[in-house]
Specification:
Elements: E1 3-7, H1 12-23, E2 27-32, H2 35-44, E3 50-54, H3 63-74, E4 79-82, H4 90-95, H5 97-125, E5 128-135, H6 146-167, E6 171-178, H7 198-210, E7 215-218, H8 222-231, H9 234-239, H10 241-244
Parallel strand pairs: 1-2, 1-4, 2-3, 4-5, 5-6, 6-7
């Protein structure tokens, strides 16, 4: 039995991760912004032991307290998943800094604000696992979502450094690079065969963290696609509408 902290637990993917851990008999502490959705995820996790906290993780000054209360509720954390994020409005982020800063804060800065106290806790215990959901968008800037992609790309680099820092303490840090998933966050996006589904993606996340993976693409097909996208020369990239289009 593990003591599992899920931050952003009301997202479609994180909720499925919570249910999977509940099925193992793990102890759960769920943090999310919407109290009704949080209660529904907790209900789905029954009869596992579950505590919850309502919090807006983009409120950076409160994030250290969120981790402290999670540790107090469970005694300690064995495994944590940081799952919150938001695509934001790319066009608005091009027109004014406030919209850009909101995307960067939600998808990068807030994760750092949570990771600092969480990493310190796990380092002091000399073990544990952290998984952080990033995105394939962080591998290459594209006009349709480059502010969001920049936040996720920065988070990928931060996690590389954190992983090496915590290696000697026996703490595993897994970067979870998700492709697009059919969830409420992508409800306005045209769907294609590359879109994942929440439950299979959740299973991939749990399996990656179980084996202590460093960086993993979920679904796995993106491990074949993204190296090609990354290595496409800039001039060729800009000629291809499916890559450089809005």
């Amino acid at each position: 039995m593990e003591r599992v902290l899920i931050l952003g637990a009301t997202s479609a993917i994180a909720a499925e991760v919570a249910v999977l851990h509940a099925g193992r008999g793990d102890r759960l502490h769920l943090v999310g912004r919407d109290p009704a959705k949080l209660a529904e995820v907790a209900r789905r996790c029954a009869p596992a032991e579950v505590t919850t906290e309502r919090a807006d993780l983009a409120e950076l000054s409160s994030d250290e307290g969120v981790i402290a209360r999670a540790v107090a509720a469970m005694g300690h954390v064995d495994r944590a998943l940081i799952a919150h994020g938001d695509l934001g409005d790319q066009l608005a982020s091009e027109r004014g800094f406030d919209a850009a800063e909101s995307i960067l804060r939600t998808n990068f800065t807030s994760a750092v604000a949570l990771l600092i106290p969480l990493a310190n806790h796990l380092e002091s215990r000399r073990g544990g696992r952290v998984g952080v959901i990033t995105s394939v968008a962080g591998d290459r800037g594209r006009p349709r979502n480059y502010t969001y992609g920049a936040a996720k790309g920065a988070l990928n680099v931060y996690l590389q450094g954190l992983r090496s820092r915590l290696y000697s303490a026996g703490v595993k840090v897994t970067t979870l690079k998700l492709g697009p998933v059919d969830t409420p966050m992508t409800r306005d996006h045209a769907k294609n065969l590359l879109f994942g589904r929440p439950l299979p993606v959740a299973r991939g996340i749990v399996a990656a963290m179980d084996r202590g993976a460093t960086e993993v693409y979920v679904p796995a097909v993106w491990a074949a696609i993204m190296p090609l996208v990354e290595r496409t020369p800039e001039r060729v990239f800009q000629w291809l509408p499916f890559l450089s289009g809005r």
